Each structure stands twice: as C-alpha cells, then as structure tokens.
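B., you asked whether I could sanity-check this one before it goes into the benchmark set. Here's the sequence:
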Amino acid sequence: MSRTTTYRCLNCLDHAVTRAFDTSHLSRTCQNCDSFERFANEAVIERFEALEASPPTEFDWERLDRREKLIVAERLARTDATLADVSVTETDADEAAGPDGETASGKSAEAESGKSPGTDP
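And here's what the prediction gave me:
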C-alpha cells in the first residue's frame, strides 16, 4: 500500500486533494473556490494553524503577513529547522520586494535549514 499526502487550497482552506507523492505544495484549480491556487502540504497547514493558535515568543508573529507565516510554517514542518532558526528582519518599507522573500511591507521571514528555499527535504 502506498503512502499518500493531503494538500489543501491556500485560498479557501476547504478543498483538499490527496496524492501519492510528498512535496511542499502543488498548484491546481480549486473545485471549491474555482481559483487556480497553491495547495499546501497538510503538514504545513497544520503547523501554520498551530502557530496561529499559539504564536511563537521568539519573534513578533503578528507582524508577519500570511505569506511570510506560511514560509515559516513550511520550513518548520518540512525541514529540521526550529523556531530558533527563524530570522525575521525588517527593511525600509520603500524598498521593492526582493527575490529572497522580502515583501513590500518591509518584512522578511526565513528559516535557515541548510537547504535552498523551495527544495524538499
């Protein structure tokens, strides 16, 4: 019997699909909200929801936007990273979003794990 992984739509969080492979996310049209969205690995969603329910004290969780929170949740769920490995930095809000995850809001969240962003463990 093969192992399966569940992925949930990041737009509505209601629709889920199951696949016979394990990756951080996949993109497809959601049958529930009819949007072409990223479906995140259920382990990432569970970690995200746990962090939302009990925000970490290591940094100001509420200052991060949803995308940044999901990046942190992904690194914690899919790598050996811990909250101690998460680095939250602020930049000048006038700077444009950069390729390393900075947003126009001037915040950046990243969990160092020894792996390049976007790679699976």
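One thing to flag: The chain has one domain: 5-111. Otherwise nothing jumped out at me.
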